Amino acid sequence: MATAKHHKMDRTSAAFLRKGQEFYASKKYDHAEKALLRAMDMCSCGVAVQNQPRIDHEILKAIDEKRLKEALASMSASSRRCNNPVHVDALDSLIATYEMQSRLDEGLEFALKMVNLSPREPKSYLRLGKVLRLKNLPTTAYYNYKQGIELVKRKHPHHALLHKLQAQKDKILPYARFDPVTTLPVELVRMIFKLLDFKAQCGCLRVSKTWNTVLTGESLKSLWQVQEYKFTGNNHPGLRRILSSFRSYARYATGALTELSIHNCSSFFQFCKLQQALVLAPHLKVLKLRELRGVCRLEEVPGQVKLPKLTNLSLGYGVQPTPRLVQQLLSSSSNSLKELSIFGLQGRNESRGLLDWDPNWPKLEKLKVIRLSCLASSPMSRETDLNRVMELTPNIEEAWIDRITWSPKMLILCWPKLRSIFVGGDVWTLYGPRDQSRFNEEMRELHLEDRQNLLGLVPFLSSPHFPMLEKLSLLLREPLRQDEFMSFIRPSLESGTLRELDVRPLPVLDFFKDFTLPDWFKSDSITYLSLIGFTREFFHGHRMLEEVVLDIVNRFPNLRSVDIANEMFPDTLLAKFIRKGVKTIYCRAGPPRADLRDWASKKFGAEIIMKLPPHLPAAHPDRPNLSDYLRANVASSRYRGSDYSRKNEGAVDEHEAVMNYGNSSPSYGKCRLWWS
């Protein structure tokens, strides 16, 4: 009896469905709605969809969060399902009726109930997708199609409407908008945001609540392990909140902040003391401080503060630590410190320097890199001695020293593993007795300023000099003599390992004597070369300039970078460099013609940069004053031509005078555009 009754109800339901579809076809939508609702009521399943509570919010949220399957499973206990095609078709036609009447909110409500009524039926997702598109929700529609395909495939892998679902998904994809933070895998999100600097990462927190939640979550805490603060003014609006901001950012790293860099740190420490920052970062490994606008004096921290075990400590330009603070930081990091940079060393008093460290200070066995310089304003004193530092740091491999008393012999004895060294022009050199001591033959980089430093090494050089040398720079006030040039440069070139050669100024007078370069002055391994000294000797207008300079370039076939500093080379000569394979030209005499730069970039992928080469140790950004040896001494003191004197009576200095003289020369800046 029950089965017969169900069949009778299904026949009645089908009759109302046909009647409703006829009303729909004749555009009698009100009559169609009543007939279709009656058809659903007459279904044998007994599920009155129109009387069920609204579930649109829960299902829409599940679709956006890509967990529709789980949401439908949780609703199955309180919801009845129906696979009767008459019921599904009646509900589908009812939603289509609402679409034609622009009743999209009601259509969306019934479309979501249709998904819950028959979650394995493709028509449910096709109809819901259409309503979502009409409501201008293409992204939700895309996720609806995508998850609908997965649910239908599980029970009906060969359903006839699956291809239509896939086609709709592909069609809506170009209009969908995805949030990369919530869509991409967390590993890829981490890789992307690590490419941003710290300021940009902080700005991303204000994009939306979703971004804030995801970026500060446990899975992305590594983004906040490296923090860099830069302040451009004393009255920055966020300065008073810097302590609370720093506390929040440190919390995002969950106590694992490993690298902290502060530029213009006096502004930072005005509202967040050094000891507070160190307490909030107990696992700090790298600490870098700079003060570009003045002086930041750092006092010792209270004894009860537990200091981190640093691997890299850099107290750069403008930062003046007290000896006691340096001792505290080094003592806490004695077993971990690998790199130490202090550019603002100051004395304990007028006659005693900081570098006379106490005998009870720790030995830094793991230290590999050291950079030390006294204040530029401090008078040079023999008390500022490097010997005690050498005794405490026996395993140094890279050293950078300036404005400090040093001894080549002690350096050889105390730093036998030294691979790279820079000695500034303001050091005080102590010469010891000659003996059998020699520099490490595995030296990779040698950078010296001033002839005295160069001559101080002569007693300790073996032959050949540094057979494994890769970088050599000699920055002098006067060019080397011909025998000195050959003695110091030839062994390194012939070793075949030298890649960068920077000798300024070059012995240009010797090159122009008979217009013949030394036979040994060539190498296939050189990729960087400085061509400086021609304008200094006033050869920038010489008729043989291009021939001599190009002869030098031709001797280094693998040359890729050239530094010409303030040399007044014509643009045609720069174009010839580029044609010969040079990819980067550093020049500071004045901007080259725009068409030359465009031609070099588009045709050869080369660039002309109006800056110092960034890899020069002498141009370290934390050096108190730019080295005199890097400034262009373009005027020769023995030259006083009448044209030169007349044009430059009001010149500020010799450099400006020669620049004016050079710009008036017909050989500079007036050339035919033959490179195009």
Topology of helices and strands:
Layout: H1 2-25, H2 29-41, H3 56-64, H4 68-75, H5 85-100, H6 104-117, H7 122-134, H8 138-155, H9 162-172, H10 180-183, H11 186-193, H12 198-204, H13 209-215, E1 226-230, H14 242-252, E2 259-263, H15 265-271, H16 274-280, E3 286-290, E4 296-298, E5 312-315, E6 319-321, H17 323-332, E7 339-345, E8 369-374, H18 387-392, E9 398-402, E10 405-406, H19 408-414, E11 420-423, E12 428-429, E13 445-449, H20 451-457, E14 471-475, H21 482-495, E15 500-504, H22 508-511, E16 528-530, H23 545-554, E17 561-565, H24 571-579, E18 584-587, H25 594-604, E19 607-609, H26 642-647, H27 654-663
Parallel strand pairs: 1-2, 2-3, 3-5, 4-6, 5-7, 7-8, 8-9, 9-11, 10-12, 11-13, 13-14, 14-15, 15-16, 16-17, 17-18, 18-19
Brief summary of the model shown:
By secondary structure, the chain is of the alpha/beta class.
Could you characterize the architecture of this molecule?
The protein is of the alpha/beta class. It is 40% helix and 12% strand. Strand 16 (528-530), helix 23 (545-554) and strand 17 form a beta-alpha-beta unit. Helix 1 (2-25) packs parallel to helix 5, helix 5 runs antiparallel to helix 6 (104-117) and helix 7 (122-134) packs parallel to helix 9. The relative contact order is 0.04. Residues 348-355, 379-383 and 632-676 have low confidence and may be disordered.
